[in-house]
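User: Can you help me understand a structure? I only have the sequence.
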Amino acid sequence: MSPFGGWGMLTAFLVLLCCRGSGVKAFQGPEHLMVGSGEFQLINCTASCTDPKKLVLETHLNKTLLESQAQWKLFKVANISKDEKLLCSFTCGGRQETKVFNITVFYPPKQVLLTLWPTSVAAGTLFTIECRVPAVAPLEGLTVTLLRGTEILYNHTFVGTAPSPQDAMVSHNTTAHREDGHHNFSCEAQMDLRSHGGGVVHRVSDPQRLEVKEPEPNTQMVIIIAVLIVLLLVFVTFVFLCFVFSQKWHRGRTGYYAVHDHWRRLIGSHRAQTL
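Assistant: Let's start by predicting it. Here is the structure, written out as tokens:
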């Protein structure tokens, strides 16, 4: 049944109240109607005179006469799949009159699909919330809201119309927090057709949970630190080896000259004793 079937039933009830045994002009009803694709609509053909002739509803669609009185007829028009114009005609005092009912077909949100990507994420990193509402029209007036628990994370209202149904997509990137793992994420689609003479259609996705892990160490930073430590060790080792070899070289030079000087002194002393 159309979401606006209740309005149609109310219309029929008002028609019956106004028209039974009445000689005055009856309740006419709106000339612009909204109906879900494949649903039915109640059409009230009401004449402007008390004794109309040839009161008929002209349409190629399947119609059923539900009830009638002298001044009005109530029809059920079924299986409406595209925008239509229904013509209600009658003759009053030899003059033919018509009334046009413009029916706009809409495709309400029947499914709301939520995707978390990735489903497991480290705290402090980004993840994506994506919501898809398949085959909806018109897009104008459709609002898609992304929720964490009851908190609104992001919402988007579409503008413009489309002649055929299409998927409505909303995507939002946000940072994962530790407490996110304790909340349900969901997506809400609301189609507001009140500006077109309709009502409000509301659908919510199945809830999903996000697995939040402790942040992992930055691998790149660990590699950089390790390389710096190795380079520092190499530098310290090089400096140490240079110091050791320089000391060894210095001691070698000092030792050679001391022995040479000692031999010179011995030789000089021996010559002095000989003389």
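Now, to help you interpret it: The radius of gyration is 45 Å. The first strand starts at residue 32 and ends at 36. Let me know which part you'd like to focus on.
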